[in-house]
Amino acid sequence: MLERFGARDATDLAALIARGEVTAEEALESSITAAEAINPQINAVVLPQIDTAARNLKAGLPRGPFRGVPFLIKDLGCEAVDFPSHNGSRLLADTRYGQDSAIFDRIRATGVVTWGRTTSPEGGIGAATEAAVYGGPTRNPWNLDHTPGGSSGGAGAAVAAGIVPFAHGSDGGGSVRIPASCCGLFGFKPTRARLPDGPYVGEGWAGMAIDGFLTRSVRDTAVILDACAGADPGAPYHAPPLARSHADAISRPPRRLRVMLVETTFTGAPIHPEVRAVVQAAARLLEGLGHVVAPGLPAADVPMMMRAWTDIVGIGTALGIRKALKGRPLTADLVEGVGRGACAHAETLHPTRYLEAVGQIHTFGRQMAAAFAGVDIILSATLAEPPATIGRFDHRTEDYVGYRTGPGGIFEYSPFCAVFNASGQPAASLPLGFSSMGLPIGVHLAAPFGADEELIALCAEVEKCGDWLARKPPHRVK
After folding, report:
1. According to the model, what pLDDT value does residue 147 have?
2. What is the torsion angle, in degrees rounded to the nearest 10, for the CA atoms of residue 163, residue 168, residue 171 and residue 172?
3. Band of pLDDT at residue 353, cut at 50, 70 and 90
4. Residue 402 vs residues 171, 253, 308, 395, 408: alpha-carbon distances, Å
5. Which of 438, 444, 437, 390 is nearest to 417 (CA)?
6. How far apart are CA 338 and CA 127, in angstroms?
7. What does the mean pLDDT of the chain come to?
8. Using CA atoms, how far apart are residues 456 and 217, in angstroms rounded to an integer?
9. Domains parsed from the chain with CATH numbers
10. Rg of the chain in Å (alpha carbons)
11. What are phi and psi of 449, to 5 degrees?
């Protein structure tokens, strides 16, 4: 869609619209046409509300930084009156909302033209997007036999395929960064509570979940984060204030930083050799920029954290399912296997386990804070291997714990991202490499709590060292 207008990213397209070289109506039509052409292959866009988008255009758009740019919101959260949602689940199909969420209000104020939603796995628990409610898996535009990741897999696939220049996502255990890695995009998880959660929830997954965006450029992320940041009224807590905006931070390089290089998992287990090679190349790039890179491992109890994460998410999933069932039986036609397994697992836990698990997450956050003593950045892979094949992480199994933490499970595949959801620290996935099969490989950078500006400035500096968007997926609208 961008190529039609000669734009590189959402910022470029907004500038063309502002100058009158492209109309918002033309941009919307191009986005919808792109979806009609490519969505049957990738199954990423659902619940289109084209009449709503046209009505909003006619009424006049807010004069925000992305005025007139087509946009899609994730089919999980981001509650909006005009955008019903399946939330990735047959149980919650066609849910309608009585008021807009704070994050949607702020997205709308940027001037984007939202016209639909993107697929997510049921409950947002998964590193793949293959929910039964959508009639089939969401596929990766780089290779249709592979997943675009999860839980914001539809957002990643839609942006990579050229349907929209950027899209909304959310991240409770890597759900923005995993699709960014799988789809060759930029994904940034801000510091805990940097973005609003209300009014529908006070916090997601004990504060581990946060909204975010899948973008083609660092500057698109910086600008939309600035537009959306800040606590909503009644929030239980908020992130430390930024010293300067994200957009201002990327306008100049960061200071020279001390970087911990992790070539394994955080527990020392080996990762795929092609992924390790991309991480090593990223370390050399940072050294070439003058940063000081040294190998290391964070001294934190990752297995404890992952057990606590699994229990918190299981309990949260069970709560949501039981509430939506409204007394109906928990049956396979309403809830997929992993969701039913989460309910069963939650029933095995002592009533005090939730608070115990939250306490362990807080302990882990302090351990990760200590891991940054003498270090400014932790560099690792985003995923331990290239994008998984379709079906590897589908939701048919009822072994919820095994699905997450068992042999060959999601934590072996994605051992890095959830660490920073638990710690609340900002983290990003940068599209810096490819496998021998031509699949994207992301590199992960993380910073201390509240150091969002320094992290995004480093991401922008790395972005300038090459053209990470020069290579296009084969399943993409021209």
Report:
1. 98
2. -120
3. very high
4. 21, 43, 14, 12, 9
5. 444
6. 13
7. 97
8. 11
9. 2-302+358-463 (3.90.1300.10)
10. 20
11. -55, 125
The one-letter amino acid at 435: S
- Helix, strand or coil for residue 58? helix
Tokens of residue 7, six digits = 């734009």
Confidence of residue 267 (pLDDT cuts 50, 70, 90): very high
Could you tell me the pTM of the whole model?
0.98
> Rounded distance, CA 153 to CA 44, Å?
8
Query: Coil, strand, or helix at residue 323?
Result: helix
| Gap between the Cα atoms of 341 and 360, Å rounded | 23
| Residue 67 contacts residue 129 (beta carbons within 8 Å) | no
pLDDT at 220: 98
CB-based contact 101:358 (threshold 8 Å): no
Active site residues: 74, 151, 175
DSSP 132: G
Going by C-alpha positions, the residue among 253, 261, 254 that lies closest to residue 445 is 261
Span between the terminal Cα atoms of the chain, in Å: 6
In this prediction, residue 477 has a pLDDT band, given cuts at 50, 70 and 90, of confident
